[in-house]
Amino acid sequence: MVNPYVESFVSRFVHVHHHEIHALIHAFSAFFFLLGAYFVVLPLRDEAALSLGTGVLPSLFLASLVLTMIAAPASSYLLSLPSLPKGKALVILYRFFGSSLVLFFMLYIAAPATQHSAVGRVVDAIAPPADIQAANTNSEAPTSWHDLSWFFIGVRGSFFIWIALLNLFTISAMWVCITDVMSSEVCDKPET
Question: Is the pTM of this model over 0.70?
């Protein structure tokens, strides 16, 4: 049962039937928290790419595209299995991506602390204007690949690619779930 105050509040913004309010609030809150979580992780993804240098960005975007093209059929297959309800498939998908974020967190911490990062360059840039101008001239290659370990490069590059994949699949899987629950008013006309 939906609180009448909640129903009147929601009705101010959208035309919704009484029986749809519960699903609408759940869908709104799911997308709010899903997109909120993505925008928390987005600066970390950008820092991971910038710590490798801006010259690497085209390769990272290409790798994200290739991984998405490989993983899209697997996700579609998981969400279309008739024996697996979409709600359960969604839980499996979110647990998988959640555990992968925990794994990346541990790998991120395990990366050598002596490596240069974009955050360190920003802190170093808070200096006299001559130093800032000199730092901006080398913005294409902020670090030397010889100074970075393969572990550092692998974790940062993989994290960038994985977050792009995570964003695509978590949002599209949520849309799949919501389209199964919600339907247009044309389909919902009551019989008279």
Answer: no
